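User: For a teaching handout, I'd like to show students what a predicted protein-ligand complex looks like in token form. I'll give you the sequence and the SMILES for zinc ion. Please answer with just the structure.
Assistant: Understood, here is the input followed by the structure.
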Amino acid sequence: MESYFNLPNKVVFCSKCTLSNQRPHSISEFKHTKNREGAVYLKINNNGVCDACKMSEIKKSNIDWDKREKELAELCDRYRSKNGDYDCLVPGSGGKDSRFQSHILKNKYGMNPLTVTWPPLMYTDYGYKNFRSWVDNGFDNISYYSNGEVSRLLAKLSTKNLLHPFQTFILGQYNFAPKIAHKYNIKLIFYGETHSDYGGPLVETSKSLRDKSFHTYSNLNDIYIAGVKFSELKENYKITEKDLMNFLPMEESLFEKTNIKVMALGYYLRWEPQEIYYYAVEKTNFKPRPFRTQGTYGKYASIDDKIDDLHYYTTFIKYGIGRATYDSAHEIRNNHISLEEGKALVKKYDGEFPDRYFDEIMEFLDMNKEDFEKICNEFRSPHLWKKKSNSWFLRHTVNKDGTDD
Ligand SMILES: [Zn+2]
């Protein structure tokens, strides 16, 4: 059966977690086109085990975490400033991850982090309060609000062209930090997780540096934003180059001259979302949302942006896996829930329509529900979805109750 976006034609689920081989690896968002040229998806080996589960086994048995922590301490010793100037940069929103990163770097490793925030297009109240309490707990912060009219237009285009309403935010979040590091002459940037924690290529387990293809570009002619060529955005949509540059990373040769190191703290320290959450609550006064996030069962992960819930709904449409799949897979690997419990959670919550903020988002994007549903239907790959009496059903699910299972 035909598949879109280079997705593997045959849907295979991992035998240990809830993920399938349809789970996309992160690609550089500024190369993201409608057909997802060059996209790669989660590998499941001949024994039926996915790369993310394999990675998790490696982490449990093969990684000497004491040694890795020593490496982190040595790295900090090399970069720590003597006079209190910023010596590292922590990008984030004030959610559990960035709180953990900044707090442990400051208090355990004696660093002087500057925090930087690319704010959500649509803050939730809880997200904004957490952001404030993060800064109020003892950190300097630079937040950058890019031209709202342009952000909104790009978010609309990315929804129409890529069914990806969250792209504008992801672009800024990835690309803003190195530019600020450069401005302030900071040589060290700490992100949180490594990509391989979520099933990224296994090569990342053996190095702490993040691949520069994610945070540099070499040729503006190769750039797409919202699925539209850079030159077309200028010509057809009258967006200025200056406004577009906000969403782009640093130019490769400039980045190399700066000698900035982009690191993942998850390479040095064991990264378990639940542990990070407890740390953030106990030591930094982080507050979860008092209600469950739609599409999943949790209350504390990625709760700052109203568009985030819709983002995971779009992954459900495009890849057949929603937020409960992502969340449960992670928790199964960390032995917090069993595979059976994970499957039950997927059955209950995956693909739940996120109506809490939906009308507000549509108003922001200048769309209505019918427009959005029409776009969704254009992105349902025939090998994943079957239409029966005007409703859509997955052909294959982890619970083996799809129409073709
Ligand atoms: Zn797996």
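For the handout, you might add this sentence: The pocket of zinc ion is lined by residues 14, 16-17, 19, 50, 52-53 (CB under 6 Å).
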